[in-house]
Design brief:
Blueprint: E1 2-5, E2 17-20, E3 25-28, H1 39-44, E4 56-58, H2 64-67, H3 70-75, E5 82-85, H4 86-112, H5 127-134, E6 137-140, E7 145-149, E8 152-158, E9 166-174, E10 177-183, E11 206-210, H6 221-239, E12 243-246, H7 252-265, E13 272-277, H8 279-290, H9 297-308, E14 313-318, H10 321-326, E15 334-338, H11 348-355, E16 362-365, H12 374-379, E17 384-387, E18 390-393, E19 397-400, H13 410-417, E20 426-430, H14 434-448, E21 461-463
Parallel strand pairs: 3-4, 4-5, 5-6, 10-11, 11-20, 12-15, 12-16, 13-14, 13-15, 16-19
Antiparallel strand pairs: 1-2, 1-21, 2-3, 7-8, 8-9, 9-10, 17-18
Length: 464
């Protein structure tokens, strides 16, 4: 059995792993690379394998850095099933066409630019190709065993990251011996709003574990909420500006809405106008409500309270482009949540352009910002950034609230690993920037006494 790492090695995007057994070849995740000048080239590069030879794909969750190249995979000949949880399938039904729409619009813009190369003016994939890929989705339930192929059984368990996210347990039988491979996907931080805590696993022969925040600890939830509350109250009541929250349409937007609603319910926030400026976010929120049984008890209780007390917290889902443009004229009192979460695309760039240079405004960063992204430059303290080629000074207050991250921190990752019983798995640390992954690997050895995990190189292979 052979395992090859095609993405999320020394970085946090492009998750994709190929497993080859005597019986089958399959892919776990097929993610898009995000951030950095080389992103477009890497996403367009030929697959290092023939998609036509794959038997099936296993998907951990819907985020584009784990699913975004599925339409390309299908367009280049993959015809097998793509297995994912039911909630993930529902989210992909809106996320992949949305991703394709963005690709098409960017290609149109590049086509009109005299400085862009002709090959850049072709979309990575089209809406039609994305919709075609959706036909191959096959929904699975949490905890249910699936025989994906002869001698290969799989099980999806709640990863506590976003709605529908899963860690995947794969049991492969070869020559009468069964080996268990566990793919952590993205693990959530315990005791966070909306989703349930990650499921504990007790056995694996081989383990791939994420390390996005493997080098640090998040602030406590109490400290995190206090900081979030201060950012909102200070901006709306003292400074008199707007609060801009870059957020992924799936997961982070719903968590921000939850937190704003809970703080309002507790009387800690004033009446407010919240604008969710992302057509995709509305669809994702509707899907979240359809799968309410997957939410934690606190979220269900808050939803019930807000339905009985609708006044005071006015949530506006902005769909029309003219409505979005009208928000640029709002000078104070607005909380604007918009995608993308790393500030690389979408309507958030316009809101940053109109608010980032105003000292009375506040930018609240609630998620990981990959190297090379606009969000990362803002977090790293840039005094000026370029948006649509225009220099924009950074005068707004910047709050980086890592405690709201949907990713587990170092302590939570180590606690999750501590559930494994001897014999300890052969462990590979993935989905983290190189230095972060190496720090986490050493922490696993020093804190848990495991053999030093491997941080694999991109496109490296191991025989299991």
């Amino acid at each position: 059995m052979k395992l090859t790492f095609f993405g999320a090695c020394g970085e946090v995007t492009g998750s994709s792993y190929l497993v080859e057994t005597a019986a089958a070849r399959f892919l776990v995740d097929c993610g898009m690379f995000q951030g950095g000048a080389e992103t477009a080239r890497r996403n367009r590069a030929p697959f290092a394998f023939d998609p036509r030879t794959l038997d099936f794909v296993l998907l951990t969750h819907a985020h584009i850095d784990h699913s975004g190249l599925l339409p390309r995979l299908v367009a280049e000949g993959f015809k097998g099933p793509i297995y994912a949880t039911a909630a993930t399938c529902d989210l992909l039904s809106v996320m992949l066409p949305d991703s394709a729409y963005i690709q098409e619009k960017e290609a149109d813009w590049m086509r009109e630019s005299p400085t862009r190369r002709k090959e850049d003016a072709t979309p990575l994939y089209t809406v039609r190709e994305a919709e075609h890929a959706l036909r191959q989705l096959k929904a699975v339930e949490y905890g249910a065993a699936l025989e994906a192929h002869a001698q290969i059984r799989c099980r999806w368990l709640d990863a506590g990251h976003i709605l529908g996210s899963a860690l995947i347990e794969v049991k492969v039988t070869e020559d009468g011996t069964e080996k268990t491979i566990v793919f952590s996907g993205d693990l959530g931080q315990p005791m966070r709003p909306l989703v349930r805590d990650p499921t504990a696993i007790h056995h694996a022969d081989v383990l791939l574990v994420e390390s996005t925040y493997g080098n640090r600890r998040h602030k406590s939830m109490t400290e995190t909420i206090q900081e979030f509350e201060h950012a909102i109250v200070d901006t709306l009541t003292r400074k008199g500006g707007n609060v801009i929250i870059p957020a992924f349409a799936v997961g982070r937007t719903q968590e921000a809405l939850y937190l704003l609603g809970e703080l309002y319910r507790q009387g800690r926030l004033p009446e407010m106008d919240i604008y969710v400026d992302s057509p995709l976010a509305l669809k994702a929120t509707e899907i979240t409500l359809r799968h309410a049984r997957l939410l934690d008890r606190e979220s269900a209780a808050l939803l019930a309270w807000l339905r009985k007390n609708p006044a005071g917290q006015r949530v506006h889902f902005v769909q029309d482009l003219e409505e979005s443009i009208a928000l640029h004229r709002v000078r104070k009192g607005a909380i604007i949540i918009s995608a993308s979460g790393m500030c690389e695309a979408g309507r958030i760039k316009h809101h940053l352009r109109h608010n980032l240079g105003r000292p009375e405004c506040t930018i609240v960063i609630t998620g990981f910002q990959a190297a090379g992204t606009l969000g990362r430059r803002i977090v790293d303290g840039a005094k000026e950034v370029r948006i649509f080629g225009i220099p924009v000074p950074v005068r707004a207050d910047i709050y980086t609230i890592g405690g709201l991250s949907a990713h587990a921190d170092q302590e939570a990752l180590l606690q999750w690993l501590a559930h494994f019983r001897p014999p300890l798995p052969r462990t590979y640390v993935v989905h983290g920037e190189q230095e972060t992954s190496e720090i986490f690997a050493r922490a696993v050895r020093e804190r848990l006494g495991w053999p030093l995990p491997v941080v694999p190189a991109p496109r490296s292979s191991v025989h299991l």
